Amino acid sequence: xxxxxxxxxxxxxxxxxxxxxxxxxxxxxxxxxxxxxxxxxxxxxxxxxxxxxxxxxxxxxxxxxxxxxxxxxxxxxxxxxxxxxxxxxxxxxxxxxxxxxxxxxxxxxxxxxxxxxxxxxxxxxxxxxxxxxxxxxxxxxxxxxxxxxxxxxxxxxxxxxxxxxxxxxxxxxxxxxxxxxxxxxxxxxxxxxxxxxxxxxxxxxxxxxxxxxxxxxxxxxxxxxxxxxxxxxxxxxxxxxxxxxxxxxxxxxxxxxxxx
Length: 260
Description:
Elements: E1 2-4, E2 10-17, E3 25-27, E4 30-44, E5 47-52, E6 56-59, E7 65-80, H1 82-86, H2 94-104, H3 106-111, H4 117-132, H5 141-157, H6 168-181, H7 191-197, H8 202-213, H9 217-235, H10 240-246, H11 252-259
Parallel strand pairs: 1-3
Antiparallel strand pairs: 2-7, 4-5, 4-6, 4-7
Helix pairs in contact: 2-5, 4-5, 7-8, 10-11
Protein name: AraC family transcriptional regulator
Organism: Dawidia soli
GO molecular function: DNA-binding transcription factor activity; sequence-specific DNA binding
């Protein structure tokens, strides 16, 4: 399978085609794709879904995809790397947390986003700003970043909440999404609180998670939180104090311990 590699932290492209010219491929970056006009089919990891004007897709490096254009289509692409995410502003914002959550919600990657009318207007305006910046993307990185955060918050609020189901795979997907959403709120990740949310007991949820995930609930939460913290520290944009506040930790020594 072809793999596209992007060296620049962020790139923007706005183009119109009558036929798609790329094979099924994946890449080393994230892509926010806006369908400005047109219609057709989008193949993502073997699944095929229809697209139309106003639709938005978020793809990560792990997804393989291609388009089948049925009617002349204008695409606006915003492509960015992990480097772009973690070298931006020093202060954590809800937008950063929304983006991190969206990146982990692979079910949303596979289905795309269909937005209500009001949000469609806002998203269309945001991608208009994005397109206008493509001639000097490097010089406009802070402006591009604010557009990414705005899009992340709009897309997250349009995601359905995943709830436990009868199948273990769906149960685990719901639990993972819950953890990713509340990773900044330790109180929400206590076994008793999670058990109440998933209509079970504190004694049951831990063994259930270990049986199906292969690691304990505490280990998974610790590793996921530690990974996010390590990225913040590596960026040089966050103080230990600000990280502790963002993740609801007691002090900076706790941050250092989790980053090991």
